[in-house]
Amino acid sequence: MPDLMAPSEFRLALEQAFSGTMAKDASFSRAWATGKLNKQHFVHWATNHYHYIGPFGDYLGLIYANTPDHARDAKDFLLQNMYEEELSDDRHTDLLIRFAEACGGTRAYVQDRSNAMPFTKGLQGWMYCVSGREHFVVASAALIVGLESQVPSIYRTQYPTLINKYGFSEWEAEFFDLHITSDEIHGERGYQIVLKYADTPQLQQRCLQFVREAADMRFAYTKALYETYVLPDLGAWVETEDRQPALVA
Amino acid sequence: MPRIYFKTAERCVEFAEGQEVNVLRMAIREDVDVPWQCASGNCGTDRLVVEEGVENLDPPRRRERARLGDLVDQGYRLACQTYTRGDVTFSWNPDQVGLDASDSDRRGVSDGSDGRDDRGDSDGSDDGDAARAPRSGWAGSG
Ligand code: FES
C-alpha cells in the first residue's frame, strides 16, 4: 500500500485519475461541440441525461446518511448541494426538460424510463450503489470529483455551440449555463472534502480507484449515446490529429 | 503566470498560462475570503468591482446580466459567473450581502438579450405558472 499522500500530491493524483477519460473528449461530446448533431439527437441526450443525473439528490442523500456527525462541514456541503439542485432556483431537471422541449421533445417522453438506454440505467444503478455502499469520502470522490467536477469542462465547450451554431436562445440553454458555474464550485468544494477526510492510504487509494471508475462510466455513457443515436445518421466518429472533425460513413 | 489579485483580501492567486479559470473557484481553492452563497448567479453576494484586467474576462452571460442589471455597466461582475484568462484585480465590500431578489428579480428582468421575454410569454414556459412550482420527480445535476 502506498504512503499517505500530502493534500497537494493527492489532489494532483485525483486530477490525473480522470484526465485520460474526460467525457468532453467522447465522440458524442465532440460531435456536439463541432455542430454535427440535430435536435432529435438532443432529445435523446436530454432523456438519457434525465435518468442519469435526475436522482442526484437521492445519491447525495445516501452519501449524507453515511457521513458521520463529526464531518459536519461535509454534511453541510452535501445538504447545500442537494438544496441547490432542487430548490434554490429553477429545479435543474426542469431546465433540462426546457431544453428538450426546445428541441421538440416533451416532458412525458423525457421522464419515461423506457426511453433511456440500458447503459443509462446501468449508470444510474452504479451511482446508487456507490453512494449507498461506499465510505462517504469515496462516494464523494466518485460523484463530485469524478463526475460533477467534469461538468464545466464539458459544457463550456458545448454551450457556445448551442447558442452560436445550433441557434438556441440563452433561456432555452440555461441548463448548461447554470452548470458551467455551479459545478465549478461544487467540484471545488468536493475536492476540499475529499482532501480533508481521505486521511488514510487505503481511503486515498479507494478514492482514486472510484474517480477512475466514475470517469470511465461517464466516458462510456457518452460514447454509448453516440453509438445508439448518432452513428446510424452520421457514421463512425473520427477525430483527426488537429482535432478537426472528420466523418467517415 | 497570470494572476488574480483579490485586492480587498490582499491576496494574489496565480494560475497556469493558457488556462481560463473561474474566479470564485480560485478564491475558494486558495481560501480567499470572498463572500458568496449560491454559486449560481442568483444571490449577488459575490459581486466584485473589476479594477483592472476587464479585457481578460469572458463576457457576462444571461444569468449574470439579469442578476446584476445596471451594476454590470458600473464595472461589477459576479465571481461565481466569471472566468478569466489573464491578470485581473478585484475589490469588494467585505460586509456585503446578497442583492435583494425583489429589486432585480432575474425571472422578470428583460435585459434585451433573448429568452422568455421574446416568446411573448411571461415565464417563458408553455404551461404557465406550473413551470415554476416544485415538481415531483428528480432534481438533477450536471
Ligand atoms: S454566489 Fe450567489 S450570485 Fe454568485
List the helices and strands and how they pair.
The complex is a heterodimer of chains A (249) and B (142).
Chain A: H1 7-19, H2 27-33, H3 39-53, H4 56-66, H5 72-86, H6 92-102, H7 107-111, H8 118-133, H9 136-147, H10 151-164, H11 174-197, H12 201-234, E1 236-239, E2 245-248
Antiparallel strand pairs in A: 1-2
Helix pairs in contact in A: 1-12, 2-12, 3-6, 3-8, 4-5, 4-8, 4-9, 5-11, 8-9, 9-11, 9-12, 10-11
Chain B: E1 3-6, E2 11-14, E3 21-22, H1 23-29, E4 47-52, H2 62-68, E5 76-78, E6 83-84, E7 88-91
Parallel strand pairs in B: 1-7
Antiparallel strand pairs in B: 1-2, 3-6, 4-5, 4-7
The complex binds FE2/S2 (inorganic) cluster.
The site of FE2/S2 (inorganic) cluster (FES) has 13 residues of chain B, from loops.
Extract low-pLDDT stretches of chain B. 101-140
The CATH architecture classification of chain A is Up-down Bundle
Outline type of chain A: globular
Work out the strand percent of chain B: 15-25%
Bound molecules: FE2/S2 (inorganic) cluster
Question: How many H/I helices of chain B?
Answer: 2
Uncertain spans of chain A: 241-249
The main sheet of chain B orders its strands as 2-1-7-4-5
Number of domains of chain B: 1
Structural class call of chain B reads mainly beta
Please tell me how large the radius of gyration of chain A is.
Answer: 18 Å
Q: Tell me the number of structural domains of chain A.
A: 1
Description:
The complex is a heterodimer of chains A (249) and B (142). Chain A is mainly alpha-helical and 249 residues long. Helices cover 71% and strands 3% of the residues of chain A. Chain A has twelve helices and two strands, in the order H-H-H-H-H-H-H-H-H-H-H-H-E-E. In chain A, strands 1-2 form a two-stranded antiparallel sheet. In chain A, strand 1 (236-239) and strand 2 form a beta hairpin. In chain A, helix 9 runs antiparallel to helix 11. The radius of gyration of chain A is 18 Å and the shape is globular. Chain B is mostly beta strands. Chain B has a single domain (3-115), classed as Beta-grasp domain (Ubiquitin-like (UB roll), Roll). Chain B has two helices and seven strands. In chain B, the strands form two sheets. In chain B, strands 2-1-7-4-5 form a five-stranded mixed sheet, covered by helices on one side. Chain B has a two-stranded antiparallel sheet with strand order 3-6. At the A-B interface, helix 3, helix 4, helix 5, helix 6 and helix 10 of A face helix 1 of B.
